[in-house]
Write a structure and sequence with these properties.
GO molecular function, one term: metallopeptidase activity
Radius of gyration: 25 Å
Protein name: PmbA protein
Pfam families: PmbA_TldD_1st, PmbA_TldD_2nd, PmbA_TldD_3rd
Low-confidence stretches: 1-9
Strand content: 35-45%
Family: Belongs to the peptidase U62 family.
Helix content: 10-25%
Structural class: alpha+beta
Largest sheet: 6 strands, antiparallel
InterPro entries: Metalloprtase-TldD/E_C (IPR045569), Metalloprtase-TldD/E_cen_dom (IPR045570), Metalloprtase-TldD/E_N (IPR002510), PmbA (IPR047657), TldD/PmbA_N (IPR035068), TldD/PmbA_sf (IPR036059)
CATH topology of the largest domain: PmbA/TldD fold
Oligomer: single chain
Length: 459
């Protein structure tokens, strides 16, 4: 049963910002030329069950504070989880001392004040204060497990089912004039099953979902059923001969290919010269029908925000437009190094300087169904699971272990496992064909993707 709470996480907004203001003042007095402080709070509860019994119950409440200081072109980052005055005094002292000993970084510094988020806050619906008790989470997990087992197949057993939620708050203050607050929630559930055939061969598969609002979670019976059906469908897997074949990457794992692309256009990788796409800016990488959009302003999006982790205002960006690479993903440091402007993609933990990450990335859907792509390809592999991917960052050569299904004459024939799929990512991107089955579920979503004539390693 869902219940609502009217209380927020422990510290009030006034208390958080007063603490951060005092910390910045102390850091400036101690010799910092510029500084930023971040305060984060988190509350979570999760329950895991297996074979009808509770296996884990985890509850966590924590608060952490991070301080980044600049002394000239030197910087240091320190974090603490205890906030007595003596601890905060030592935090400031240590951070400034570390910065003075750090090497010069010509690109270190706070974000350009003209790029900071200054508009009135917009409600992106990222926080749900719904409280789920441990008892209700336990029942939901048990119901997921029961739903899968209700398929009535003796070959099936539960591997695990889990449910839970996390609620976070994040506040940042900088000496450069930024003051921001971000509050999010995440509710999740999953089920996983083991299917065993008459010879004792086992296959595992599952289903899971994470959402911002508890009311958006799918029915637990649906989660259990889908997970169990996937495990059962994988039974009887065969090995296939090594060959060149058409490969359809199921939408569940097709995003793994695009995540390699995202990493390769990170400004930090480009600045180091260690990306296979470093010379491809403004060039045609994908078919002209392909669009890849990063939209940080999606309502209830798992990666949505109004500003990045440097306080820079964010906006929707076409990373790939009509197949052409439009730009890099930049934080302030990488932008300075490349002589460009930050794109609002800074991401950081409390104990580290900002790196780069995306928000809500989507590769556009195609016009053909999976069935249509299978029919046009004739025969090949549908990959539903990948593991151990390997990529050469300089060349884009890529490979991964995989399993899935062999199809012939446009229809699925039998499951396959213990295969390897390999190719060059630049070549793969130029030839991939998106299906029409795009679903928006996470921070990176793609439809299923067909790539013809890939190397498939088998027996």
């Amino acid at each position: 049963m869902l219940q609502t709470r009217n209380d927020t996480l422990n510290a009030s907004a006034d208390t958080r910002f007063e603490r951060l203001e005092n910390l910045l003042t102390a850091a400036r007095k101690a010799g910092a030329d510029a500084c930023e402080a971040v305060f984060a709070e988190s509350r979570s509860l999760s329950v895991g069950v297996r074979k009808g019994a509770v296996e884990t119950v985890e509850r966590d409440e924590n608060s952490d504070l991070g301080l980044r200081v600049f002394v000239g072109q030197k910087q240091a980052v320190v974090s603490v989880s205890e906030f007595s005055q003596s601890t905060l005094d030592r935090l400031v002292e240590r951070a400034v001392a570390m910065a003075r000993l750090a090497p010069d970084d010509a690109y270190a510094g706070l974000a350009d004040p003209s790029r900071l988020y200054k508009d009135a806050p917009v409600d992106l619906q990222l926080f749900d204060d719904t409280h789920l008790s441990a008892e209700s989470l336990q029942q939901r997990a048990l119901d997921i497990e029961t739903a899968g087992l209700s398929l009535g197949n003796d070959a099936l057993q539960s591997d695990a089912a889990s449910t839970g939620y996390v609620q976070n708050q994040w506040s940042m203050l900088t000496s450069g004039g930024f003051r921001g607050h971000h509050q999010t929630s995440l509710f999740f559930q999953s089920g996983r099953y083991i299917a065993t055939d008459a010879d004792g061969n086992m296959e595992r598969d599952g289903e899971g979902r994470s959402v911002r609002f508890a009311s958006d979670l799918p029915d637990v019976t649906e989660t259990g059923r889908i997970a169990a059906e996937r495990a059962l469908a994988a039974l009887g897997a065969r090995k296939i001969e090594t060959q060149k074949a058409s490969v359809i990457f199921d939408k569940r794992i097709a995003k793994s290919l695009i995540s390699q692309f995202i990493g390769a256009i990170s400004g930090t990788m480009i600045a180091r010269g260690s990306s296979f796409l470093k010379d491809r800016l403004g060039q045609q990488l994908f078919d002209s029908s392909v669009q890849i959009i990063d939209n940080p302003l999606r309502v209830r999006g798992l990666g949505s925000c109004l500003c990045d982790d440097e306080g820079v205002a964010v906006s929707e960006r076409a990373i790939i437009k009509d197949g052409v690479l439009n730009g890099w993903l930049l934080n302030s440091s990488a932008a300075k190094q490349l002589g460009m402007t930050t794109t609002g993609h800074a991401s950081r933990s409390l104990a580290n300087a900002p790196g780069v990450s995306t928000h809500n990335v989507t590769l556009s859907a195609g016009t053909e169904t999976i069935e249509s792509l299978m029919a046009s390809a004739g025969k090949g592999v549908i990959v539903t699971s990948m593991f151990g991917p390997s990529v050469n960052n300089d060349t884009g050569d890529w490979s991964a272990g995989a399993s899935g299904f062999w199809f012939e004459n446009g229809v699925i024939a039998y499951p396959v496992n213990e295969i390897t799929v390999a190719g060059n990512l630049i070549d793969i991107y130029s030839r991939l064909v998106p299906a029409s089955d795009l679903e928006i579920k996470g921070t990176l979503d793609t439809p299923s993707l067909l790539v013809e004539s890939l190397s498939v390693g088998g027996k």
